[in-house]
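**Backbone shape codes:**
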Amino acid sequence: MSSNQKSSNVVWHQATITREKREELNNHKSAVLWFTGLSGAGKSTLALAVEEQLYQRACRTFVLDGDNVRHGLCGDLGFSIEDRTENIRRVGEVAKLFTEGGLIVLTAFISPLRSDRESARNVMPHGDFLEIFCDASLEVCEDRDVKGLYKKARSGEIPEFTGISSPYEAPVNPELIVPTGQLSLEESSQKVIDLLLAKSIIN
């Protein structure tokens, strides 16, 4: 991807139905729940569990999952540091659009670099970015190894694998730390719901 290629002669089109009107219709605010953590830390599982609870509360939501996004929107990207950065940039922009549409967006991405997560936070004009650290040790994640990725990474079959041959920078001051290596899924999802209630995103 060339960083020198930029769109020109474009003007932001203001919607006649505002975000505020959509939030009023939905009876909840928009937000981005950015789940980050090692592969196997439970990001997607937790995001889906939280979405299920929000659905039961009649909230409008959408989960952006790392693997799913790489099937289409980011299908042209690899796993180099540069491509990971572009991957997160795209996801941040999509999440921003979804919040303007009145949704609670749940993103499940390793997003290993603090600078990339901070860039995603900074595109949200309303301060909607809630960083949720799925805190599970490398040992726990390797023991789970649901996809068999750690085994392949250890054998050298997968280069640039986060936590093994590529770095993961844990959040310094996230909105929420969920010790997914210790808590049950029910306990973990309740912590996220409690955060949304405390932030008055849902009621």
Notes: The chain has a mean pLDDT of 91. The beta strands are 31-36, 61-65, 104-108, 129-134, 176-178. The domain at 20-137+168-197 is CATH 3.40.50.300 (Rossmann fold).
